[in-house]
Amino acid sequence: MSKRKTVKKTARTTKKRPGTGRKGRQPSVQPLVQEALQVTWLLKGGLKNVQLAYIRVGKLLAQVRDRKLWEALKHLDIESYAEQRLQLKRASLYRYLQVHDWMAQCHKTWLEPHPKGFIPELTDATDLMWIETELARKDLTPEKKAGLEKLQKKGLDGSLKDGELDRWRRQGRGTDTSMKSFLSKLRLLRRRGARLADMPPEAIADLDAAINVIDKAVTPVGKP
Question: Of the candidates 159, 170, 96, which has an alpha carbon nearest to the alpha carbon of residue 129?
Answer without folding.
Answer: 96
